[in-house]
Amino acid sequence: GGGFYISAFAIPALLSPYNKGQAALPAKTLQTQWQHLYDTGKRFFPSVAALTSSAYLYLAYNSPQAGNTRELYLVSALSSIAIVPYTLLTMMGNIKKIQTEIKAEEESLVLPRLRGDIVTWAKLNYGRAALQFVSFSVGIWAVLDGA
Q1: What is the DSSP letter of 60?
Q2: Which of 58, 62, 76, 90 has its CA 20 to 30 A from that of 111?
Q3: pTM of the complete model
């Protein structure tokens, strides 16, 4: 849910003054705020995904052979940890663009591009949220299947 929250609520809040006709955050401030969100998530979400994936692997290992429970737990484990390669393969180019967007250019040239890159990042981040949703949903399915 945290990844979904960031894309659905935190990023729009960062971008909202611009949408309401108010003065937009300066590019450097916007970049700094986004970087803080990204760094916080980078420290938290991979650890949670690894812990969750480990728990699902443990459950898969200890599940009886009968039924689909073991396979469902394996799908949950893989979906959970898949946020790491998804980030590296799908999002890293966009992340690097945001982190290096501000150069010696005019603010009026940088800001629209930076805002667009942050919007793109938020859309890509929904992919990570979807992986976590799949992990959770299939994990619940496994619990119900094994009951």
Answers
A1: H
A2: 90
A3: 0.88
